Amino acid sequence: MNRGAEPARRVARNQRGTTLIECVTAIVLFAIAAAAIGDLLTQQIQMQRSNGTTTTAIAVAAGELEDVRSLNYGDMATRSSTTIVDGITYNLETSVVADSPQQNMKTVHTTVVWTEPTGAKSYTLQSIYTDVTH
Questions:
Q1: What pTM did the predictor assign?
Q2: Of 26, 27, 57, 104, which cross-links 131 as Cys (Cβ 3.0–4.6 Å)?
Q3: Of 41, 56, 46, 59, whose CA–CA distance to 117 is shortest?
C-alpha cells in the first residue's frame, strides 16, 4: 500500500501551480514592456504633432510667397507678419532683394518661425521673380 501512494505523490509535486517568484517575474517583465510601449506611443504622438505644425508652417510660407507674387513688381518689399493657426503663432519674415540674382529680378525669402513644446522651429522658402516688361 505504501508503494502505490508514492508515485501519486511525485506527480502531485510536479504539477503544482506557479510560485510567487514566477508571478512577480512575469509582472515585472510585463511592466517593462508596457513602459517601453508607452514611451514609444508618447514619442509618436509628439512627432505627429510636430509634423502637423511643420506642414502648417510650410502652407503659411507658401501663402506668403503667393501674396508677394500677386503684388506688382515695383510693390514687392520686405515685410513681416504674424499668423495664428490652431493656437500656434507663426511669425513670418519676408525679405525682398532687388536685382538679385540679376538685374530686373528680385529674390524673395520667406522664413516662418514658431515654437513647439520641443523648442523653436523655422522653415524658409525662396523664390525669384522677374520684371516682365513689354
A1: 0.70
A2: 104
A3: 46
How far is residue 106's CA from residue 108's CA, in Å, rounded to a whole number?
Answer: 6
Number of domains in the chain: 1
Count other C-beta atoms under 10 Å from residue 21's C-beta. Answer: 8
Please give the full DSSP string across the chain, using - where no structure is assigned.
-HHHHHHHHHHHHHT----HHHHHHHHHHHHHHHHHHHHHHHHHHHHHHHHHHHHHHHHHHHHHHHHHHTS-GGG---EEEEEEETTEEEEEEEEEEET-SSTTEEEEEEEEEEEETTEEEEEEEEEEEE----
104-130 confidence digits (pLDDT tens): 999 999 999 999 988 999 999 999 999
- What's the confidence (pLDDT) of residue 134? 47
Cell numbers at residue 92, please? 513670418
pLDDT of residue 46: 87
Amino acid identity of residue 40, one-letter, is L
